[in-house]
Amino acid sequence: MFTQNPQTVAMPEGTYVFDLRTCNRRLAFNRFFWNMIRPEARQAFWDDEEAAMRAAGLDDEEMALVRARDWLGIVQAGVNFFVLEKWARVVRKTNLEVYAIMRGESFEEFMQTRAVPHAR
Amino acid sequence: MARIIGGIGTSHVPTIGVAYDKGRQEDPVWAPLFEGYKPVAKWLAEKQPDVLLFFYNDHATTLFFDLYPTFALGVGERFPIADEGAGLRGLPDIRGDVDFQAHIGEALVNEEFDLAFFQNKPIDHGIASPLPLLWPHEPDWPGTVVPIAINVLQYPLPTARRCYRLGQAVRRAVESYPEDLKVVVVGTGGLSHQIHGERTGFNNTEWDLDFLETLRDEPERLTQLTHADYVRLGGAESVEQIMWLAMRGALGASLEEMHRNYYLMTTTAMTVVTYEERETAAAAQQREQEVA
To answer: B277 and which of B159, B198, B221, B252 could share a cystine (Cβ 3.0–4.6 Å)?
Structure first.
């Protein structure tokens, strides 16, 4: 991708810049998660995940990521974490649980790295 | 005229809102956070500002990426608090003063800050997480809010310097309003945290404390940092701290830090700081003469 935006240069590893090009490529995928702020979208997802994904126009790769609950893969594909966390509520995951998964750690392992390991 | 009587920097971690709603203020895990806000609430109760002017970010809740503004000011008498996927919170709508909000918007655009404006929209945890720790809400909030949303999600972001200058322009806008309103400026977000990718869980307390010192005494230095600098030093989402720079820009050169609480519990260095402007020597002398 061609970019002369100096803002996105020299980002540390394990960080995924969400920029205009990413957004353009993954707008529908981001919108799918964003829609979860509406109770009817949450209900539609609970009722029939596959139908909800089809209605949102997700492609095969995106649908596979959702089915696999591949949190890191979804971020790497170009979803902004702040829409993703809305879906985390819908599938009953806390942010701390999602953080552990993105780091490739069990929840208990992850919490042992924290200042207050028994915090919830 | 309206005037700024102080500033607040505060984190806006959504789980603060969850813990608040579940009544975990006394829970040993959460108490260091909630106790740290009590002096701020007391300070506000004593100072009785009419307005809290927030520099905050929307987390792709009210504003979606199909039209995501760099700067956006909210106008309205009431803003509902947003459902972000977990349902509604039991808090009253945030109150607004339309005439004051519109004045700030007009003044900023005439200073060449070409804001977007939103009306009749909910506001998410960018404001709603810390707000009930700052102000009581029963039966209703004691004052109004001016919400100024800043894009810290989708690159290109406004630069640190631009946010600082926005704050400076906000000060001029406030001081050009004829009504005697007392205003506290609030910057939300940070401090160090990263909550996406393999680098999730990154923190840097040394940098956080350095940031707070520099913000108080030499804020211009922080305007020279790039977004990548903030990301490297404090984690990807700590780039929110450019909103603290907007708050700082609205305050005078010499500040007294009245209170600070820093609590890194799990992934975000949850911080709250209050500032008052130091009286200039000339102003102090004049006051003494008036008393004499």
So the answer is: B252
